[in-house]
Specification:
Layout (H helix, E strand, L loop, with lengths): L1 E5 L5 H6 L8 E8 L3 E2 L2 E10 L1 H18 L4 E7 L1 E4 L3 E9 L2 H18 L2 E7 L4 E3 L16
Parallel strand pairs: 1-5
Antiparallel strand pairs: 2-7, 3-4, 4-6, 4-8, 5-7, 8-9
Helix pairs in contact: 2-3
Length: 149
Amino acid sequence: MRCRLTREPIDTASLLAAAPASSDGAVLLFLGVVRDFNEGRAVGHLEYDAYEPMAERLLGEIVGEAMERWDTGMISVTHRVGRLEIGETSVAIVVAAPHRGDAYSASRYVIDEIKKRVPIWKREGYVVGESEWLPGNTPGAFAGTVGDE
């Protein structure tokens, strides 16, 4: 299990190379990428911020939960922070498992739980020069959990 935040571009080839064991018949790579249009507005870039110690801890907890729930050999999560341009990878999840069903289920669980629980905030920068924090991803959205470290 490897969970980390990074300010550097995500090297998916190295993530995939570290994944399969001889018992894993399925290796799944999920990538979240920055798109150029969201809810009717032209997006120029994204900025991610995080409460890093808590985010990394929660990423590890989520991966641990997925590994207990599904038969997986390995799960890794890498999430970017900082400014990202259109087309850049913001999150990479690699799941290796004996069978594809468990790989798909675990990957879906991990990304859904990241969006619900991990204090990573996304701000869209629009082509017209404005920017805004997206609902559910605003600083303070996790205010009740900060003291739970």
